[in-house]
């Protein structure tokens, strides 16, 4: 039985090798064809993009309200800054856990809470800015409101960093 299988493989070998034979004619040319020389270049239609639309009135109203809330929170931050500065100055050099240090930490946390409220409004402005940007609307008005809010938050960050460094020293 194994001899029959061996004879079958020997007989099928030349047939299988015949499939690998090269063609007797020439290979097709790889030179550029006539259609490739002329090209099929299509010119795109001339369109003038329309200017981006202004965001809807409710969106602009919401952006304005958010900036107003950041201004209000920033004013409260600035009003509380002097009291926190005096607490931090009183706690300077005090050991961690002392009464003066604890009062300064609590005052600093209250000021940080004010900053957090401003950050929430800034995050909402970011959301409005992204929504306007992805829908193809103008971001100029929302961007200006966002920049104003971001500058107030950055000023608050600088004050908090300064006061924290003073308390740690």
TrEMBL record:
Top-level lineage group: Bacteria
Keywords: Signal
Signal peptide positions on this chain: 1-21
Keyword flag Signal: yes
Keyword hit for Signal: yes
PROSITE patterns given in the database record: PROKAR_LIPOPROTEIN (PS51257)
Protein name: DUF4398 domain-containing protein
Organism taxonomic ancestry: Bacteria, Pseudomonadati, Pseudomonadota, Alphaproteobacteria, Sphingomonadales
